[in-house]
Amino acid sequence: MVGAAGLKPIFAAVRARKMLAVANKEPLVMAGKLLLEEAAKHGVAVLPVDSEHSALWQCLEGRDPCSVKKLILTSSGGPFRNVKGSLARITPAQALAHPKWKMGPKITVDSATMMNKGLEAIEAANLFHVEAKKIEVVIHPEAIVHALVEFVDGSHMAHLGVTDMRIPIQYAMSYPGRLENHLPHLDLARLRTLHFEKPDMKRFPCLALGYEASRIGGTMPAVLNAANEVAVEAFLGGKAGFMDIPKVIERTMMRHSLVLKPGLEEILDADLRARQTASELL
Questions:
Q1: Which of 12, 62, 110, 149 is deepest in the core (most CB within 10 A)?
Q2: How far apart are CA 244 and CA 37, in angstroms?
Q3: Do the bridges between strand 20-22 and strand 46-48 make them parallel or antiparallel, or are there none, so unpaired?
């Protein structure tokens, strides 16, 4: 299930005391703190399947939270990392031509705008109980290092692996054990080099908006997510330009009446109102 549609089923699963392996990031963005509180109340484990969050989870296992300085998410950079000039005339076909992944259209556009990393930063903040300012995003075109943890002594722990979602899915299924498989394995000698660079937040403002929504908290992440879903749908339907996506999201966030400690119904109401506002803005 893509997007906010997964929110109610996930809460229903928790209340039915089902262990969750979560691949849908949007419910963890919209209501992550509430979901984890509910899971703790029912004694349910919430296991991340998203490759970056699975990587962070594995790097953090057994670690004292006080020893952690920073969480680092990696991004392939999307299809427009090296494109020069304005992105205003980008077409849906260009945005859907991801150089690394085969994903659904909404997630692929999120990768192109780098909103996926904005959402992932919020998700990581909720899952691992850290502030967004302790989460960093770096561009890593090889997509071999899925995430890193920097500790207070300056050392880094990285999770490396081939780009195959079956591996984090398997780990969630086998946790706390590990199972053998016949999937492709990483050949370090063939890699030779790994590259890292800082993302350009001015060129990809959706990433900065993700950090801003996480900093504000409350219902704002739900508003960010809802406005993004509406704007991406409009872009894919030819009713909005590529750079209209961050504009619609930012203006929807500016019009929102924040609730700092929302319940589930208030989060759902914020989601609905944000969709209406984003549609009006479009």
A1: 110
A2: 36
A3: parallel
Report yes or no: 248 and 226 within 8 Å, Cβ to Cβ: no
Domains along the chain with CATH numbers: 83-96+105-113+217-282 (1.10.1740.10)
Q: How far apart are CA 128 and CA 136, in angstroms?
A: 14
Cis amide leading into 9 (omega within 30): no
Tokens 């953090």 correspond to 60
Which residue type does 237 have?
G
| Residue 119 and residue 126 in contact, taking contact as beta carbons nearer than 8 Å | no
Fill in the DSSP letter of residue 15.
Answer: H
Sign for the CA dihedral angle at 178, 49, 113, 34 comes to: negative
pTM beyond cutoff 0.85: yes
pLDDT in tens, the chain (282 residues): 777 788 889 999 999 999 999 988 888 999 999 999 999 999 999 999 999 999 999 999 999 999 999 999 999 988 898 888 899 999 999 999 877 767 889 989 999 999 999 999 999 999 999 999 999 999 999 999 999 999 999 999 999 999 899 999 999 999 999 999 999 999 999 988 999 999 999 999 999 999 999 999 999 999 999 999 999 999 999 999 999 999 999 999 999 999 999 999 999 999 999 999 999 999
Amino acid letter, 52 = E
Assign 150 to helix, strand or coil.
Answer: strand
- Give 146's contacts (C-beta < 8 A, 6+ positions apart): 51, 52, 54, 55, 74, 159, 160, 161
| Structural tokens at position 261 | 């400690």
